[in-house]
Design brief:
alpha/beta, D-Maltodextrin-Binding Protein, domain 2, eight-stranded mixed β-sheet, single chain, 11 helices, two-stranded antiparallel ribbon, 44% helix, rod-shaped, Arc Repressor Mutant, subunit A
């Protein structure tokens, strides 16, 4: 038995005619008769009595008809919802991103996406890039925003921002008037860092160690604006991405390009390689690629 058996049976029962049912179903009358006969043979009951030119449901037919209405209705609902998903009318996307990234790049894009797909629910989770990557790997998130490099064997990705870290100091700092600074010049400085679950935490430490020193970390935070305020108060220096530095108060802080080495800050959207991705999530990725294609 498949859903067509029940649909044909219900149409005959509603119209009390094989001929009218065939016309409504756009098939031949023998096709309808054969379908009903197959259904009766499979169930082992006569479902429809033929009384002269009229037809009527047997007791078994009446029981099946009552149940078939629920089954066909549920099937139609499932079909409708799946169609909505395929046509991107509904759906849910779980996206993880570090707080500083979300504020800088995504509000307008998410707003435009919602305008186009108002019934797709977007759930945002703010975590450091390390946790975002781990949650995408386990399937707790559909999509994540992380700092490159990432695990290419586990994730598909596309890079949407290529910037670098900048040195941020108070105005009276010894390097405040420099046009650029080398990382090695900072070995005796007090550093203000992001927490350990931020990819920048390990990235900066690794670069400092390559320059022959371990940074003296005096405070860690998950909020870039709090870090910048502590720099302005003279509590230390920070290395922050260009996009954040563009938001800083240049009267209270100095932003100096960092070289020798340049520390890249490349952001990517990731999703699990070789895993199911919903229609809505796929459309969000395509939408993001189109939106960010002109961002340096």
């Amino acid at each position: 038995m498949d859903i067509r058996h029940l649909q044909y049976f219900m149409e005959v029962a509603r119209r009390q005619s094989f001929t009218k049912a065939a016309q409504a179903l756009y098939v031949t009358q023998p096709t309808v008769s054969k379908m009903i006969k197959n259904l009766e043979d499979e169930l082992g009951f006569v479902l429809i009595e033929r009384v002269g030119k009229r037809i009527a449901l047997t007791d078994a037919g009446s029981i099946l008809y009552a149940q078939a209405k629920q089954i066909v209705s549920s099937f139609d609902l499932v079909t409708s919802r799946l169609t909505d998903l395929m046509e991107l009318k509904t759906g849910r996307i779980r996206i993880g991103m570090p707080p500083m990234i979300g504020v800088s790049f995504f509000p307008k894009m998410i707003g435009k996406f919602r305008e186009q797909y108002p019934k797709i629910s977007i759930q945002l989770f703010e975590h450091g890039a390390k946790k975002v990557e781990a949650d995408v790997e386990t399937g707790e998130l559909d999509i994540g925003v992380v700092l490159l490099p990432t695990k290419e064997e586990l994730f598909e990705s596309f890079c949407f921002v290529r910037q670098q870290l900048m040195l941020v100091t108070p105005p009276d700092h010894r390097l405040a008037d420099r046009s650029e600074a080398a990382l090695g010049e900072l070995k005796d400085e007090s550093f203000l860092f992001f927490h350990e679950d931020f990819a920048l935490h390990d990235r900066i430490i690794a670069e400092c160690e390559r320059q022959g020193f371990e940074p003296d970390i005096v405070y860690k935070s998950s909020q870039w604006d709090f870090i910048s305020e502590m720099v302005a108060a003279g509590l230390g220096i920070a290395l922050l991405p260009e996009v954040i530095c563009n938001e800083l108060d240049k009267q209270r802080l100095r932003v100096i390009p960092l070289n020798k080495p340049v520390i890249p800050w490349h952001l990517a959207i990731i999703w699990r390689r070789n895993s199911y991705l919903s229609f809505a999530a796929r459309e969000w990725i395509a939408f993001a690629q189109k939106t960010f294609q002109h961002i340096p």
